[in-house]
């Protein structure tokens, strides 16, 4: 029983971690290449989920919906970059925070206006429902397993994109020296739009996939966004490797903490109090983790920018 | 009778494979200007960093008036009487000259956790700041924002800021950089008058100024001091010529 | 006359030199004259005071409470402005202190109302329904929390600082959300507003005046603080921290103390807010509120004494007016904010009162 629980929770942790990575990789790329802090990244997550839900409902195909979600998020991302974000690259971080905070308000209220306040329906397609039995008699939902698979696939694809392609080379050049790549004759504004759209698309993918698991509603991107911030702060802002490591760490610590802390407190506390204390502490756990890591490494574990 | 104010003892600093500072020992005595020269890439900045406190040496020690300051922060060193100026002007641009200079006076008098009395009426702060400005012949610019000053005036403000600390030693990092002949001559004159009160460790590219001002010169090449002596000795030292000619060739 | 005694130049209108300094007017800064900025400030503060007083005597209690709300939010923003505007520390987590101050008021009132002790070990601590006690505890609690958060966060700069302050505030938020004793995510009602000796705090005008006094005090303290040695050091820490260190002053403790003072002001505003609404919930701790406080500071004009007040007036008016017209008012708030950030960098006060002199 307890081994089964552990395996299940480990998988849940990895699943949360891979989804966080989809969010965090975009955030950290945008910061690494353009030096921009983007609070509105959670809005692309939401856009992806809504577009997927709407298209899935009208076509009946989850896969078509998913494709539409990614494209919608990437397009909205490109549009936002063209209209607003590119005016912010040379601005102080305070301006970036405020402008992207304004974008959150616009996106959230705009979505509420168009789709209403009640959550939209989006569920995994029938061929992805059900369970598989893993070694040790753990029954695990196929859909969640698929999420892990998608997360791993995207991570590998991203790795190849950045380390093996021309675009990746330019991104890496941009990370190390922003003026330099302009001098190399790379069309910077096109590159920036592309990177931003890529990040938005990944966020949209995450939103669509998680939306089918939880619910599609206004504001769904915000808790994830803040978790993604914790991830990239832990990993080192600008570092993809750090984002991957941080995402898995946060995913596992958060998931396992929520399950095992109340159990732990129950060993020496009355059950009702134990679940309260355990839940409260579990909710704080990743922030405590972040504080400890920063106390030793103020620039995160894999800092790309000193 | 001269006495040693600042001494560097066998400093070592390595960055990766690069030996940026290799067993450097120097001293600065009362009443003198000790110039440190060397071609680009000789490790001057690294050495200054170790004296000023933003770089920690791997080995060796730094003493100021007999107190070891090797492990101290920049601010602690400053309070002990190490004044410095920067190669690139590092003043608070929007603030007046006075406000920049007053900072050092404030640090000297006590801690800065005084929350009530306005500084603009605080004669204890203003008078020493005015004095430092007068020494640099800048009184007439006291309430001008730094961003409106000329390049040469900024250089003078930098030195005035260091003077406000009533320093025991001054560390001036290329104070002549970017100055025209006139500004350079003026600063040379001011520094000459200053050295009787505060010994100066001068890092400078302008060789004319160095040979005119310096009582002693140390030459840093590839992280090591290769020559040391008065300007006559240094002028004639073949190793120094090599280092500089080699530099010019490259 | 011999000038041995340190003299202070108190004659605010005098343009001549302080008599204590030999030969010139060097040691005094030229005084600012009464100008457009001063006029705008007096009108702003005067209206904030007169409108609710008039509304009260005309029987419009709603507007008195609205003015209290503006005043409290302005005070919270004054606190944040000290960190962001004067100290250059972009804290994205000031809701933590606002909410914490609120919870101090709420929890204290809860225990006083139920006659249950807050804790019994190691000493018996009862609840209290006195605002003075609540404020004192709020000051202490917020100062301690800010000291801990600031001590870790200020080791970092830039984006890290922004995100870390945000994350710590989220930590407090989730804690309040999942801690069932004080209502969890449902929040905690304050059935009886806390009291002050000799005053009827339930009277809307009295309560407004208490809040107004709090705001004016916070602004006066900020103003005085920024003119002091501490303020001079903080300004230098914001503009050029290397220069500050080279002058012999470590920036870190200066920033940390400013951060703590900033948090305490915001926390006190939170305690007032909880008593105004008779309710405290995790919403006060949410990152949305941190963002709104930043918006207010920027709308008003960052690093300006009256900026937070102007920002709060504008923000609450927009919320009230637009909110009355459409339930999607935040969409328009977002558009206005975007416009201000992109095109009007100096905020409302910059627009009304001209650019700030940098002293």
Automatic annotation (TrEMBL), chain A:
It comes from the Bacteria. The chain crosses the membrane at residues 20-40, 60-85, 97-115, 142-162, 191-213, 225-253, 274-296. It is found in: Cell inner membrane. It holds the Pfam family BPD_transp_2. InterPro entries: ABC_transp_permease (IPR001851), BCAA_transport_permease (IPR052157). GO terms for biological process: amino acid transport. The keyword Transmembrane applies. Keywords: Amino-acid transport, Cell membrane, Membrane, Transmembrane, Transmembrane helix, Transport. GO terms for molecular function: transmembrane transporter activity. It is a multi-pass membrane protein. The keyword Cell membrane applies. GO terms for cellular component: plasma membrane. Belongs to the binding-protein-dependent transport system permease family. LivHM subfamily. PANTHER family: ABC TRANSPORTER ATP-BINDING PROTEIN (PTHR11795:SF442), BRANCHED-CHAIN AMINO ACID TRANSPORT SYSTEM PERMEASE PROTEIN LIVH (PTHR11795). This is Branched-chain amino acid ABC transporter permease. It comes from Vreelandella nigrificans. The lineage of its organism: Bacteria, Pseudomonadati, Pseudomonadota, Gammaproteobacteria, Oceanospirillales.
From TrEMBL, chain B:
InterPro entries: AAA+_ATPase, ABC_AA/LPS_Transport, ABC_transporter-like_ATP-bd, BCA_ABC_TP_C, P-loop_NTPase. GO terms for molecular function: ATP binding; ATP hydrolysis activity. GO terms for cellular component: plasma membrane. The keyword ATP-binding applies. It comes from Vreelandella nigrificans. Keywords: ATP-binding, Nucleotide-binding, Transport. Pfam families: ABC_tran (PF00005), BCA_ABC_TP_C (PF12399). It comes from the Bacteria. CDD domains: ABC_Mj1267_LivG_branched (cd03219). This is ABC transporter ATP-binding protein. Residues 6-247 form the ABC transporter domain.
From TrEMBL, chain C:
The chain crosses the membrane at residues 42-64, 70-88, 95-113, 133-152, 159-176, 204-221, 252-273, 293-316, 328-353. It comes from the Bacteria. Keywords: Cell membrane, Membrane, Transmembrane, Transmembrane helix. Its main location: membrane. GO terms for cellular component: plasma membrane. InterPro entries: ABC_transp_permease, LivM-like. It is found in: Cell inner membrane. This is Branched-chain amino acid ABC transporter permease. The keyword Chloroplast does not apply. One of its GO terms (molecular function) is branched-chain amino acid transmembrane transporter activity. It is a multi-pass membrane protein. It comes from Vreelandella nigrificans. The keyword Transmembrane applies.
